């Protein structure tokens, strides 16, 4: 049994070139892939390349306490990615952080400012009938922009917003007394609610069975409607859309089925609205694009194409609104994230399956609105927690500092290896270089494949890895020296030292990798870059030691410089305090074993 074992060991010792050839092929393949893909440098993170990092925190929707879940967060990330990419922002990153945060990293670019505005926009679009409308404290523009809808036939554009108040009152900010203004507002809301809510046929059918039940149900419904009307009337009367604080909350928590108040800006004036339940929503929009009206004076518009079901809904609601002859009940409000972006007047049913949103849009505003409508609404509302901007100059300085720290660390390790291990540094330094080449090429390839970005913590992880790799060499070299101190020659010492060193290296690297994995799982953001780099370089350390360092040491052990124990080889037996070689002496055969008399000898 012993002979075959020695034979396999000798075979492994005699062919270290196979392992060296294997790792050489791997290096060539990775380097070739790096150049073939065009990614010759690692992708840099925001803190090194410059850009903006935005932290968004998800908020539960009203009536949906469990809306923040993994599915909705992943959907939000996907939509944000499409929005940013739709603006042409290259190499932007959108990723979840924990259970309720999303991190958006936007590199420096021509559209990065627009991307920052869009990533957190919920973009929930609803088409709601207008029940009441009035200027809110600011003078209306004499040439307020029109908002029109178009399809197979074109709706009449609204020349100016209307409400129960007179045009002169809207232009001057309401010259009537406060009490009369409040009375007119309350009457408008009450009339709108009465006209906009009719008993359902199902309710009438069920109530016809019993007159007393009908009377009770009617009384209950009337009381409920009256309470809702009073509450909405109070909200509408108190609403001042010229105040940003009130605009931020007006209609934002309303459900699609609710009648609600909202604010909207037309021209230079803010208007407040009472809007009925949503009849069409953003999911019914198939496509949206920004176009410039070359035939008229509408300027930039957003053209929308509806889905099949959306086309029918839109035709139904425009047909109903066209039956009303007075404004604003023949208008529908296009509501985006709780704010009325336009309120076109409808004169006939629009059955063409498309619509236009026109107004005082700039090209950038129209393209932005079309972009968010095209890629859908976010399933959650988000609040901006923090915005961090890093200039390209600062990023370059941090990258230079990180590379300088890495170079200093590498130089110190090399000096230590040369000073204490002398000739063995000829094995350690190439091993470090192989590890560096593998790390660089893999990081360059991981950029476009898994969107890995080299940030400052990741650079720190790479610097720490230099020490981990050097530690593996030191363990192996010291095991060889221990064998030489026991009186063995170099070649047997290398083969006997390797199993013991291998076990220690694997245990040490396993602990490092486990720490990196735990750190990657429990942390978020940039710290994950440190953990990922540390884990990657730890795995590469095992590869380099097994497939490069050990085979190279086996080859060098055959060279006279190392085998003879030259004083500069780092393996000088005298310098290591080696014992004298153990030699066996032949014992005389016989039954007695005692001291030999010199005279008899």
What is the topology?
Layout: H1 2-14, H2 17-37, H3 46-49, E1 51-59, H4 70-86, E2 93-97, E3 101-107, H5 112-118, E4 125-135, H6 167-172, H7 178-196, H8 201-207, H9 211-238, H10 244-247, E5 260-266, E6 269-275, E7 280-281, E8 285-293, E9 299-306, H11 308-322, E10 332-336, E11 339-342, E12 354-361, H12 363-374, E13 381-390, H13 392-421, H14 425-450, H15 456-485, H16 490-522, H17 527-556, H18 560-563, H19 573-576
Parallel strand pairs: 5-11
Antiparallel strand pairs: 1-3, 1-13, 2-3, 4-6, 4-7, 4-10, 5-6, 8-9, 9-12, 10-11
Helix pairs in contact: 2-14, 2-17, 7-9, 13-15, 14-17, 15-16, 15-17, 16-17
Q: Assign a percent range to the helix content.
A: 40-55%
Q: Report low-confidence residues grouped into runs of 5 or more.
A: 1-12, 138-186, 195-209
Average the pLDDT over all residues and give the rounded result: 76
What is the count of β-strands? 13
Structural class: alpha+beta
Widest beta sheet: strand line-up: 4-6-5-11-10
Categorize the overall geometry.
elongated
DSSP helical segment count: 19
Question: How large, in whole angstroms, is the Cα Rg?
Answer: 39 Å
Give a short account of the largest sheet.
5 strands, mixed, barrel
Terminal residue distance: 42 Å
Percent of residues in β-strands: 15-25%
């Amino acid at each position: 049994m012993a002979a075959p074992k020695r034979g396999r060991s000798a075979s492994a010792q005699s062919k270290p070139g196979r392992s060296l050839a294997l790792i050489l092929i791997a290096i060539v393949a990775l380097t070739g892939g790096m150049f073939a893909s065009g990614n010759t440098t690692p992708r840099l993170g925001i803190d090194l390349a410059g850009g903006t990092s935005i932290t968004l925190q998800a908020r539960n929707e009203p009536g949906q306490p469990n809306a923040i879940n993994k599915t909705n967060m992943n959907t939000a990330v996907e939509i944000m990615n499409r929005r940013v990419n739709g603006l042409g922002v290259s190499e932007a990153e959108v990723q979840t952080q924990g259970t309720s945060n999303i991190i958006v990293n936007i590199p420096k670019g021509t559209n990065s400012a627009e991307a920052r505005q869009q990533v957190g926009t919920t973009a929930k679009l609803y088409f709601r009938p207008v029940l009441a409308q009035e200027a809110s404290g600011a003078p209306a523009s004499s040439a307020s922009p029109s908002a029109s809808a178009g399809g197979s036939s074109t709706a009449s554009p609204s020349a100016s917003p209307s409400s129960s108040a007179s045009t002169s009152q809207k232009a001057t900010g309401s010259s009537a007394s406060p009490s009369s203004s409040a009375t007119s507002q309350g009457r408008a809301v009450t009339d709108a609610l009465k006209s906009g809510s009719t008993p359902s046929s199902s309710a009438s059918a069920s109530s016809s069975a019993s007159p007393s039940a009908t009377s009770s149900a009617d009384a209950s419904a009337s009381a409920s409607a009256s309470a809702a009307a009073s509450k909405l009337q109070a909200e509408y009367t108190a609403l001042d859309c010229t105040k940003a604080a009130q605009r931020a909350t007006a209609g934002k928590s309303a459900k699609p089925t609710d009648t609600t108040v909202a604010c909207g800006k037309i021209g230079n004036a803010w208007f407040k609205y009472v809007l009925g339940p949503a009849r069409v929503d953003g999911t019914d929009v198939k496509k949206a694009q920004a176009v410039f009206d070359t035939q008229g004076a509408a300027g930039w518009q957003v053209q929308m194409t509806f889905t099949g079901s959306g086309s029918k809904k839109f035709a139904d609601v425009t047909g109903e609104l066209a039956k009303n002859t007075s404004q604003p009940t023949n208008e529908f409000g296009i509501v985006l994230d709780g704010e009325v972006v336009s309120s076109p007047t409808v004169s006939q049913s629009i059955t063409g399956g498309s619509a236009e949103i026109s107004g005082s849009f700039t090209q950038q505003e129209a393209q932005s609105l079309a972009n968010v409508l095209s890629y859908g609404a976010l399933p959650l509302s988000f609040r901006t927690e923090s915005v961090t901007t890093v200039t390209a100059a600062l990023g370059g300085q941090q990258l230079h500092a990180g590379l300088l720290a890495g170079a200093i660390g590498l130089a110190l390790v090399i000096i230590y290896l040369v000073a204490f291990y002398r000739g063995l540094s000829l094995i350690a330094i190439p091993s470090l270089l192989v590890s560096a080449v593998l790390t660089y090429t893999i990081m360059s390839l991981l950029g476009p494949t898994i969107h890995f970005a080299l940030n400052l913590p990741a650079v720190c992880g790479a610097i720490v890895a230099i020490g981990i790799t050097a530690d593996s060499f030191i363990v192996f070299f010291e095991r060889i020296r221990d064998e030489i101190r026991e009186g063995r020659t170099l070649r047997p010492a290398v083969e006997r030292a390797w199993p013991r060193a291998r076990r220690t290296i694997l245990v040490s690297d396993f602990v490092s990798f486990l720490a990196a994995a735990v750190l990657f799982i429990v942390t978020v953001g940039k710290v994950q870059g440190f953990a990922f780099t540390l884990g990657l370089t730890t795995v590469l350390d095992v590869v380099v030691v097994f497939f490069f360092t050990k085979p190279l040491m086996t080859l060098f052990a055959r060279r006279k410089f190392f085998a003879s124990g030259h004083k500069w080889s780092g393996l000088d037996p005298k310098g290591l305090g080696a014992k004298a070689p153990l030699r066996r002496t032949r014992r005389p055969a016989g039954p007695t074993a005692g001291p030999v008399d010199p005279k008899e000898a």
